[in-house]
């Protein structure tokens, strides 16, 4: 086996593998797949039969193997044209029966002629240099020029379709694919024309190698399928069509935040939307420029629309990454959250009202409305808690019971408003000498109680009672009226009450009553 036979066999294996791979790839694109598969099959068989042409022992044997090889060569442009018609979406131009049949007439005539005599080969000559059969076309026939016209016209038509396709496409990937096919196919076809058609006019030293150059096409086609997914291009609607049918407003900008594309929903957000292409997006929402230009992925925007209505929008920002060029821009997706914001504000207002009502209810349930001190119910809860604490820790605490002297007289003489002021001033004086562990409450009328935690010493308890009385020696001045008021107070320790809070209250109340009786009338 010669080098050329081995090279042809390698090409045959490569194209058969590519053929099998395409057959099982993306079955939803059956017609595009079948066209590309037939291209690979014709190229593979062309190389297969040329393998025997290169290694033939006699001229007649070379002629014999050249017949199926030339048939595959004539089929290759037809299948290639069909593939690119589908690939570039030009099928509408070939819908009529006559137009659909026309591309097959010329290659059919060449194939029929090949069964009787090679169409573009005058004779076979064994190359002295490469030791394989080569063409001798020094006296070309009319069929040679028909072949030349057939191959040239078909590939020119293919290149025109590819050029128009890339020109009308807005996507860099499709433009790269088109240019890639044009460049690779141009090189392969040019080398094939030179080695198989032009050089045999002058010399038979160089053997025909057009079939071997197809290996370059195979490599590029494989790369295009794997890297650019060429057989999936029309598997789904174009991204631009999807872009314009999305309900949410979308704006696509370049890396400098200048608008490249804007969908129909987004046009309703801005005035003069049809002239926004190229506009600096932050200039349309100036108060959010820093956020738009920052790395923030989600921002909330307050925007006045073209119709004058205000809208609350949530904006999601996503970088557009191209496989080859890296970051090419940003996509801004706006979502109308006006109703949501309104509902949240209403819910917030309701929650604030509920919280305020709850605070008021808690206050009225636990505090005295006149003095702001703890009320009677709260006092009894605290007293129970102190009892449990003392029982648990085997500690002691004290209770001081107090009331205001002459309070009824003040109420009767000056009115309840003045009486309330006296109560408030009394509460204020109590709070001035209240210590950290003290708990003071108004339990009704002019009666107050003070719980003193961790109190065991009678002497200290007597001293606290004296302090409370001392702060009421100063007269109370209300609206130029000087009121003389004092308190009566009685104290008791929990340890003296035999573990009963009722008895503790009774002991303190009795002590206060005795203190009140001891005062001169």
Write the layout of secondary structure elements.
Elements: H1 3-23, H2 30-55, H3 59-87, H4 97-114, E1 123-126, E2 133-136, H5 142-168, H6 172-198, H7 210-228, H8 239-245, E3 250-254, E4 259-262, H9 264-267, H10 281-284, H11 289-293, E5 298-304, E6 310-322, E7 326-336, H12 338-366, H13 376-393, E8 398-404, H14 407-414, H15 416-432, E9 438-444, E10 447-452, H16 458-470, E11 476-478, E12 481-483, E13 487-493, H17 501-518
Antiparallel strand pairs: 1-2, 3-4, 3-7, 5-6, 6-7, 8-10, 8-13, 9-10, 11-12
How would you sum up this structure, described in words?
The protein is α+β, with helices and mostly antiparallel strands and 521 residues long. The chain is 56% helix and 16% strand. It is built from 17 helices and 13 strands. It has helices at 3-23, 30-55, 59-87, 97-114, 142-168, 172-198, 210-228, 239-245, 264-267, 281-284, 289-293, 338-366, 376-393, 407-414, 416-432, 458-470, 501-518, and strands at residues 123-126, 133-136, 250-254, 259-262, 298-304, 310-322, 326-336, 398-404, 438-444, 447-452, 476-478, 481-483, 487-493. It has a 5-stranded antiparallel beta sheet with strand order 4-3-7-6-5. Strands 9-10-8-13 form a 4-stranded antiparallel beta sheet, sandwiched between helices. The longest helix has 29 residues, at 59-87.
